[in-house]
Amino acid sequence: FSSFECWMVSEHVQRHGFSGSLLGFMFGMMYTTMYITGIASGFIGELVTGISAFGAWSDDSSFHTGGAVHAFDAGVVVLALAFALIALTFHENYGARGEARAGAPRLAGSRALEVALVGVVVALFDSSMFVFICEWFRC
After folding, report:
1. What is the arithmetic mean of pLDDT over 120-134?
2. Is the Cβ–Cβ distance between 139 and 45 less than 8 Å?
3. Cβ-contact 100, 70 below 8 angstroms
4. How far apart (Å, rounded) are the C-alpha atoms in residues 84 and 88?
5. Is 111:105 a contact under the CB 8 Å cutoff?
6. Which residue has the higher pLDDT, 130 or 94?
7. Does the pLDDT at position 32 exceed 90?
8. CA distances from residue 123 to 5, 42, 65 in whole angstroms, order as listed
9. Is the dihedral of CA 103, 106, 112, 113 positive or negative?
10. Sign of CA dihedral 57, 58, 59, 62
């Protein structure tokens, strides 16, 4: 499990007061939706790769577009839309009211570099996995 699943359990039981027995259904729906989204993304990626042939943006440009690159371009668009949706509708969980928050300023100050480095490591690992998958299974 990841931190997302831990967050979801906390939100489900503590913040919203839902029954713990509904968690199985919630996780089942989450994973089913995740797999369906992955399959649909593969089909959409396959469709957008055929829009135009891979080539340079212009004769003297080192920027290339078309072919398999379109699948990544579509991913950027979807991520931008998802970011906007999450930014507008997500309510942060800061803990229970009256709870001591002594650790928050320390985390924001002295450990900000460590948190940023963990983010960079995760992003690099994920990108290397995406490159591996794209090279192993040609678009």
Report:
1. 84
2. yes
3. no
4. 6
5. no
6. 130
7. yes
8. 19, 21, 23
9. negative
10. negative
HSE-CB at 126 with a 13 A cutoff on CA atoms is 6
Tell me which residue has tokens 């199985």.
24
> How is residue 43 written in tokens?
């089909």
Q: What is the 3-state secondary structure (H, E, C) of the chain?
A: CCHHHHHHHHHHHHHCCCCHHHHHHHHHHHHHHHHHHHHHHHHHHHHHHCCCCCEECCCCCCCEECCCHHHHHHHHHHHHHHHHHHHHHCCCCCCCCCCCCCHHHHHHHCCHHHHHHHHHHHHHHHHHHHHHHHHHCCC
Residue 82 pLDDT level (bands cut at 50, 70, 90)? very high
How far is 136 from 66, CA to CA, in rounded Å? 20
